[in-house]
Amino acid sequence: MIGIDIGGANLKVVDDTGVHIHYCPLWQGAPLADLLKPYAGKPAAVVMSGELADCFASKMDGIRWIVEAVQEVIPGAVFYGTDAAFHTRPVPALAAANWLASADYLRENYADAVLLDVGSTTADVISLNRFEDLKGLTDTRRLQEQYLVYTGMLRTNVATLVSSVMLDGTATPVSTEYFAASGDAHLLLGHIAPEDYTSPAPDDGEKTPEAALRRLARVVCADLDEIGRDGALAVARQFWDAQRTLIARAVEHAVSRSGSGRLITAGIGADLFARELGGVTLEEEIGEVSDALPAYAVREVALRRSGGA
């Protein structure tokens, strides 16, 4: 059995050999079926969130396309929905159910915890002792409930979280162009390594500290020699402060509502947010598969329900 998580930007597969992450930008026509061919011949459990990609006219169009692409390669695949059930055909419940699969897997052993899964694009905040209340939630409802925070470690436009920054004591409005991404800020601040910056940079350029500094300078319409390294780092730090505050507030809200006693973290931001918010990473519990938690979780839920090992 393999587990598959199909996002808008990444395809994540977990099998007996480990975690496999493929960059798969659906909005650019990524060949999903071709990327899945190496995994053909194995039973598969699937979750998705890529149906929201703007190449699809509606979520149902995206769901149908994804289901057909998977079934072209793996005809017997089953798809986990927000009703916590598995399906074999396109239905609305398949939209953005990856977070619920994670909760379904973890809720028995971590019922006293809030899960914070910070990926490249979004952060899921999940109270594991409220599973029945979580069923059926759409992404819109999750945004309203602060269970979904639309910011991540790599792909967030810096200008979406800061409208101005302080440079040498002067409030400086930012450009709303996509000049720099969260990956640039986190790379410069030492939160990720260059090899972790797996999505394309905003300018399709190099993913090095020097290139990240140049992109961050552009956020205030400057070249690097105009504001210097310190100025670009100031942009990075103020973006990170805003991002941390946004996610921390959502976690505090979830803890307050659920009465949970601890925080566990997963995803590319697991180590960072465990340090910052006083949590424990899932990697300490389940190993590297925590980097692709929904793919691993849907696999384990499917095996559990089938009575498999």
From TrEMBL:
Pfam families (alphabetical): Hydantoinase_A
Domain Hydantoinase A/oxoprolinase: 45-259
Highest taxon listed in the record's lineage: Archaea
One MF term in the entry's GO annotations: hydrolase activity
Name recorded for this polypeptide: Hydantoinase A/oxoprolinase domain-containing protein
Organism: Methanoculleus marisnigri (strain ATCC 35101 / DSM 1498 / JR1)
Top-level taxonomy: Archaea, Methanobacteriati, Methanobacteriota, Stenosarchaea group, Methanomicrobia
